[in-house]
Design a protein that fits this description.
Fumarase C, Chain A, domain 2, 19 helices, mainly alpha, 8 strands, tricarboxylic acid cycle, two-stranded antiparallel ribbon, Fumarase_C_C, two-stranded antiparallel sheet
Amino acid sequence: MTKTRTESDTLGPVEIPETALWGPQTERSRHNFQAGPLMPLAVIKALLQIKKAAARANVAADVLPAPKGQLITRAVDVLLSLPDEQLRHDFPLHVYQTGSGTQTNMNVNEVISHQAAKLNPDLPILPNDDVNRSQSSNDTFPTAMNITAALAVNELLQAVADLHEVLQTKATEYATTVKIGRTHLQDATPMTFGQEVSGWAAMLAHDQAAIKQLQPALFRLAIGGTAVGTGLNAAPNFGQIVAGRLSDVYGLPLTTKTNKFAALAAHSEISLVHGGIRTLAADLLKIANDIRFLASGPRAGYGELTIPANEPGSSIMPGKVNPTQAEALTMAAVRVLGNDTTIAVAASQGNFELNVYKPVIISTFLESTTLLTQTVTSFTTKLVAQLAVNAPRMKALVAHSLMTVTALTPHIGYEKSAEIAQLAEREGTDLKAAALKSGYVTSAQFDAWVDPAKMTGI
């Protein structure tokens, strides 16, 4: 049997594991809500920073004695210095709890209180009256949501920037490598592989720009709104002081210059930014699919690209190489597309003065950013950076294509050109043989007019 100690809250006594730093409200939640993932540590760390900033703001406003503020700060510093696996031990609550995140807010308050008691047992620090002074779960939790979301976006943007850089390098490397283009999954006119890759790179550049433009919405914080947005029981200028201190900690231009009623009742900014991430996921899905299809084969597929053999591709077929990095990224991308629906619906559920889907909103947002950051990073280093062109295959497909006939249309017209292409297809010959058989062009004319490299516009 685990040894316990007895603590009480407003509902009565509670038995708590003897060595746990949490208190009765955390213990109640631990037993009442056991479904789903644990609250992300990124949210916990943000709440700890908020409590530290709040203690200093309360001391500055003369609503909290300086010794207590200093002890809260010391306790938070100890907790933030712990390795993640050790920190996790005292933050055991799940995402699927009260929709305001109240139990996680109180978990943080209680752990700080008990950590402070370990540092100085002669100066009691109360979870509600001291650690939570000038605050409500309703404004601290959404503040932590926005901060963690903004930080996660920065990490994702860096991963995308790295992929973009590698694609730009590939576009330059293969700027003059001619291949056949494809539309409707059918042969089209020639292009260069560099041009194809430049399209992928441009998609990512647009996505980065869009997300950067949307990200500042996350910098507007709810702190100072307390229970319903009025700021009841908050010290004067509390929100502004806390936001300033948090800006220094995170290097972000955080502000409380926002409507607090909206900040508590809606999470439009997170939904908005995730919309940009959803668009990025859709583009990554397209890029990864293009690469894996172009690399299909090596002998019975398109076979235009060669991908690295990172691991055996089959338990039964020796020597098989699969596009596993592309598969991982596409799975992550479709998960993000589904997550966008979860966030959009959850963000719409702000009944009156409070949205009570906060934990699932931030948990889902962080799942999206983490999944994409990790899979994009791996996709970049373990596939795209090692991608190589099968130039002979590309050249052969161009030579065998019927759509280079398009170059003849300015000279002999659409109908005669179509007749040549259909003849080549019907008789299984190459385009030049069919063109000469048609009598519409000479050999010299065909060679002068049908130049795949010139058709690419380079």
